[in-house]
Amino acid sequence: MKKTNFDLYLEAQLQDPDFAERFERAGEAWDVALQLAALREKAGLTQKDLARKLKTTQQQISRLESPSYEGHSLSMLRRVAKVLHARVRVVLEADEPRKVDALAEAPVPYRVKRTAAKPA
């Protein structure tokens, strides 16, 4: 498939490490927002219904479902998940090594020479 002008532009922008980091964080916020909205809708609840069950405001639910919101607390996500009969999973992954962090040579595996235990 031929790349669009936007694809080419995005590729160029992603070469900037600061932009790439912000872009990835934005994607994480989108994921949370979309998952919350989908679970709420699957439960047949409006934002106002969910807010009532959580004893909060519709505006707070709207904020949680906003892709630009990054203030999700684990305790609030747990409360929402409980009402929506879901669970919260947080996954922390190590960053992939950057090219500048790579070694010029492959590491040599460290081997320990094992000797048989001497009888006492």
Q: Report the count of strand segments.
A: 0
Structural class: mainly alpha
Q: For the terminal residues, how far apart are their CA atoms?
A: 72 Å
What sort of overall outline do the alpha carbons produce when their principal axes are compared?
flat
Look at the structure and name the CATH superfamily.
Answer: lambda repressor-like DNA-binding domains
As an assembly, this protein is single chain
Task: Tell me the helix content.
Answer: 40-55%
Taking all Cα atoms into account, the compactness measure Rg is: 24 Å
CATH topology: 434 Repressor (Amino-terminal Domain)
* Tally of helical segments: 5
Element order, helices and strands? HHHHH
What is the highest CATH level, the class?
Mainly Alpha
Structure description:
The protein is mainly α and 120 residues long. It has a single domain (5-90), classed as 434 Repressor (Amino-terminal Domain) (Orthogonal Bundle). Helix content is 50%, strand content 0%. It is built from five helices and no strands. The chain has helices spanning 5-13, 17-42, 47-54, 58-64, 74-83. The radius of gyration is 24 Å and the shape is flat.
